[in-house]
Amino acid sequence: MDIVLGIRLKDATLIATSKAFTRGISILKDSDDKTLNLNKKNVIAITGESGDTINFAEYIKGNVQLKGLREGHEMESDEIASFVRHELARSLRSRSPYQVNLLVAGVNDKEEGFLSMIDYIGTRCDLPYAAHGYAAFYTMSLLDHHYREDISLDDGLKLLKLCEEELNKRMPMDFKGLNVKIVDKEGIKVIDF
Amino acid sequence: MSRRYDSRTTIFSPEGRLYQVEYALEAIAHAGTTLAILSPKEGIVLLAERKIISKLLESSSNSEKIYKINDQTIVSVAGLTADAEILIDRMRNDCQQYLKIYNKLPNTMQVVNKVCDFKQGYTQFGGLRPFGVSFLFAGYDSLNGFQLYSSNPSGNYSGWLATSIGENSSSVQTLLKQELNANSTESHNDITLDDALKIALKVLSKTSDNTHLSADKLELASLSLQSNTNKPTIKLYTPKEIDNLLNLHDLSKKEEE
């Protein structure tokens, strides 16, 4: 029941993940971070089988960093999303596939926001806003209604707030609030939400 | 004395040389000339001269010097064509593999780097013969624009504004230097693709062992940007188009007659 949410803006991308780390019916931790910064302008948010998530995220990060180092310039959002999809599709056809779903958020070389939703079967979709799992049920209608092509950062954050309220109201469990990150041309920032 | 160090590529001679690699370089010095000129803003011209021409050989249809690697890279070859085919196959394959993973073609530098790593391996491991092939790579990518590289059997590569490999390559390079200085008073930056084409043909006509140039001995290709879409486009000239160009620049047979 982890929450991962993303909203793409004109020149930035917002990403929000729940802070609760659950196992069975217990919450083990209320300050979990389900995101991982891949490089200066790209971040992934990841959910799924708990061992797989960290293992896969760090594998991706390692490869993104290595390629950046080898070629002298950082990987772009679109390349990263393609690479992640490829790795998941490959893993799916192996003896022990990774069971993870993720969002790739970043800004591309043209300094536009970028958001891509990828699931464990290797489905990839680049979207203006996206959510995985139960969170999608409760927030899609809000996002559909309030999202605008040229939405500002303030309005994006307000929209995220609406989503959080809705989730708090409807989700059967306490997800301990959201961790929110903004990716823009300056880099990746964690913000108080 | 040196015999003892000849047979293995992987062993240094007492003077610190790798004879097999040097012999491979020598093989290339006898191959048909190929040259390339970069116009940093407009594109790259590749021109190559075929070596063996028999009247009976049906050669007009197939290319043996210039090959397309992907939508934004072409190479021309000097050396053993059979060796070259292996490397070209590999490059094409690598590019498609990269495209499959990253949804984007590799940058020119990555293509060059990868194939040169492979070539280098054959100068170091396992008693194999090195590839007797040098390449000229003409490539475009959004990161660095048009680029021209040359590589040799040792696995070294370098970037150029204009260069040549194969027979007479040093005299071609001298002429290129002269022509390019004379042609653009400001800088190499302003050379147009048409200028580059003209200079390429002119230089080859001067250095060629053949008394005159003709389309059946030449291969010509260019890489440029489509004016409406800004996508790289590759043009492989037909023998007829080459003939027209030779006529246009007064380089065809008639001077000899």
TrEMBL record, chain A:
Entry keywords, A to Z: Cytoplasm, Nucleus, Proteasome
Q: Tell me which GO cellular component terms the UniProt record holds.
A: cytoplasm; nucleus; proteasome core complex, beta-subunit complex
Q: Where in the cell is it found?
A: Cytoplasm; Nucleus
What does it do? Component of the proteasome, a multicatalytic proteinase complex which is characterized by its ability to cleave peptides with Arg, Phe, Tyr, Leu, and Glu adjacent to the leaving group at neutral or slightly basic pH. The proteasome has an ATP-dependent proteolytic activity.
| InterPro entries according to UniProt | Ntn_hydrolases_N, Proteasome_bsu_CS, Proteasome_sua/b, Proteasome_suB-type
Give the source species. Pichia kluyveri (Yeast)
- Name of the protein: Proteasome subunit beta
**What's one GO BP annotation on this UniProt entry?**
proteasomal ubiquitin-independent protein catabolic process
Q: Which family does it belong to?
A: Belongs to the peptidase T1B family.
How this chain assembles, per its entry, is: The 26S proteasome consists of a 20S proteasome core and two 19S regulatory subunits. The 20S proteasome core is composed of 28 subunits that are arranged in four stacked rings, resulting in a barrel-shaped structure. The two end rings are each formed by seven alpha subunits, and the two central rings are each formed by seven beta subunits. The catalytic chamber with the active sites is on the inside of the barrel. Component of the proteasome complex.
TrEMBL record, chain B:
Function text: The proteasome is a multicatalytic proteinase complex which is characterized by its ability to cleave peptides with Arg, Phe, Tyr, Leu, and Glu adjacent to the leaving group at neutral or slightly basic pH. The proteasome has an ATP-dependent proteolytic activity.
Name the Pfam families on file. Proteasome, Proteasome_A_N
- Protein origin, superkingdom: Eukaryota
Output the Gene Ontology cellular-component terms.
cytoplasm; nucleus; proteasome core complex, alpha-subunit complex
Q: List keywords of the entry alphabetically.
A: Cytoplasm, Nucleus, Proteasome
Specify whether Cytoplasm is a keyword of the entry: yes
Q: What GO biological process, any one, is recorded here? A: proteasomal ubiquitin-independent protein catabolic process
Protein's recorded name: Proteasome subunit alpha type
Task: Fetch the InterPro entries from UniProt.
Answer: Ntn_hydrolases_N, Proteasome_alpha, Proteasome_alpha-type, Proteasome_asu_N, Proteasome_sua/b
